[in-house]
Write a structure and sequence with these properties.
By secondary structure, the chain is mostly helical. It has a single domain (2-187), classed as Orthogonal Bundle (Double Clp-N motif). The protein has helices at residues 7-23, 30-39, 44-51, 58-70, 76-84, 89-100, 125-140, 148-157, 161-168, 173-187; strands at 113-114, 117-118. A hairpin with a 2-residue loop joins β1 and β2. α1 crosses α2 (30-39), α2 (30-39) crosses α8 and α3 (44-51) crosses α8 (148-157). The longest helix has 17 residues, at 7-23. It is globular, with a radius of gyration of 17 Å. Keywords: Repeat. Residues 2-186 form the Clp R domain. This is Clp R domain-containing protein. InterPro entries: Clp_N_dom_sf, Clp_R_N.
Length: 188
Amino acid sequence: MFERFTTSARQVVKGAVKYADGTGSGTVGEAELLLALLDRTGTPAADVLTALGAAGRRAAIERDLAAVRRRGGISAADAKALAGLGIDVEEVVAQVERVHGPGALAEPAETTRRRGRQLRRPFTREAKSVLERSLRISLGRGDKYIGDEHLLLALTARPGVAAHVLADHGVTYVQVERFLTGRRAEAG
C-alpha cells in the first residue's frame, strides 16, 4: 500500500510519528495524522484546509486535540452527550487528576528504545483504519496514488477524534469532497 503514497502523504505519516514522539504518546493515532496534515503547504489537503479555514485555526485545533487526549479520548461531542445524561466529564477528569496526577487519563508513553535501538512507533487501530480507508477512497475516486487529500478524506469519513475536532472547526467529509471535486472539475 505504501508504494502508492505520494511524497506528501509519506511526509504526513513521518510527521505523525514525530508528533507522537513529541507528545510522549506511545502510539501514532488520528490526532498525530491530523497535526501532520496541518503542517502541509502547497498540497491538495493543505489547499482544502486553508479554504475551509482550518489552517488558520491550527492553535485551536491543537488545544482541542490536547483536551481530547486529556479526557482519555472522549471528544467534545461525546462529553456533551454525556452531560445530557448528567455526567460531567470535566469533573470526572479533574477528580482522576487530583488522585493520579495531571494527564492520568492520557495514553501512557511507551519505551521508545530497546538496547540502544530506536523502535518504530506503532499505529493505533484507528490510525491504521485511516490509512486503509485512504486506499479505498483513492480507488473509489479512480486515482492510482494515495495523496494527502485521501488521508484527509479518510480522517473525516468516519467518526473519530480527528473527524469530531475537524467538524467542530467546520471541516466535514462532505465539504472536503465537494472542494476536491470542484478542484478536479476545474483542472479537467
